Q: What sequence folds into this?
């Protein structure tokens, strides 16, 4: 005996519940993805736009009790702020840390600053720059 497979007529009873669930999941995923993208964009804009000062260490020269750091700072005209530098010894211990302030109308500052250390420093690391 053969069994007849009874199929419902196409389009007669509307879409199946699986199709409705798939559509809802796609819409929810799209909305959540757009919100996540907007949130990442918001934080990225404020991270870049709010920081009016950027800097880099060009060279450094370490002695027994100090590190002379050649620091190049780029900032907005009239922006005031500071950059934090630190030095570490050969074993990785921090031997010096200081903030160096910058102000004025210049947009580029090229300066050699002296970071006092408690022992011979082997590094000069720029930790960050901030306005204010």
A:
């Amino acid at each position: 005996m053969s069994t007849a497979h009874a199929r419902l007529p196409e389009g007669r009873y509307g879409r199946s519940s699986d199709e409705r669930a798939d559509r809802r999941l796609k819409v929810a995923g799209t909305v959540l993805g757009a919100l996540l993208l907007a949130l990442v964009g918001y934080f990225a804009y404020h991270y870049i736009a709010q920081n009016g000062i950027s800097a880099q260490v060009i060279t450094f020269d370490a002695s027994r009790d100090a590190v002379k750091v050649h620091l190049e700072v780029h900032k907005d005209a009239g922006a005031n702020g500071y950059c934090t530098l630190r030095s570490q010894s050969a074993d990785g211990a921090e031997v010096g840390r200081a903030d160096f302030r910058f102000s004025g109308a210049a947009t580029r500052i090229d300066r050699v600053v002296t970071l006092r250390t408690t022992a011979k420093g082997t590094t000069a690391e720029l930790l960050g720059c901030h306005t204010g």
Q: What stands out?
A: The two ends are 88 Å apart (CA to CA).
